[in-house]
Design brief:
Distance between the termini: 78 Å
Number of helices: 4
Low-confidence stretches: none
Mean pLDDT: 86
Shape: rod-shaped
């Protein structure tokens, strides 16, 4: 039992010696300050990381869309049949002797 209290006393004494060390105190203060109170604390870093991931996914999406649009533009500029198809589908253009019927599917809501 005495050895138990003696070991606890020695442990407490070692902790007090460490805490009295001014370098240890300044280092601990610095680490706590950087982790929780600085402008770039842990929460801010997580928000920046999530925003970066979101922006990277948006960049990938828009890069894919740009490639698709460039391909379509090239086809429209080089192929007159594609130009006619595009004009008919997107802008509902027609020839003089034609009639266009637009069929809209209604969504059933219950």
């Amino acid at each position: 039992m005495l050895s138990y209290f003696l070991s606890k006393f020695v442990l407490m004494h070692q902790i007090i010696v460490i805490l009295r060390n001014k370098y240890m105190l300044s280092g601990t203060f610095f680490v706590l300050w950087m982790l929780f109170f600085d402008r770039n604390d842990l929460m801010s870093q997580y928000q920046y990381w999530s925003q970066l991931n979101k922006l990277e996914s948006e960049k990938a999406f828009y890069t894919k869309e740009i490639k698709k649009t460039r391909k379509d533009l090239y086809e429209l500029n080089t192929n007159p049949r594609m130009l006619e198809k595009f004009a008919r589908e997107r802008y509902l253009m027609k020839k003089e002797n034609e009639d266009i019927f637009v069929i809209v599917k209604e969504s059933s809501k219950k």
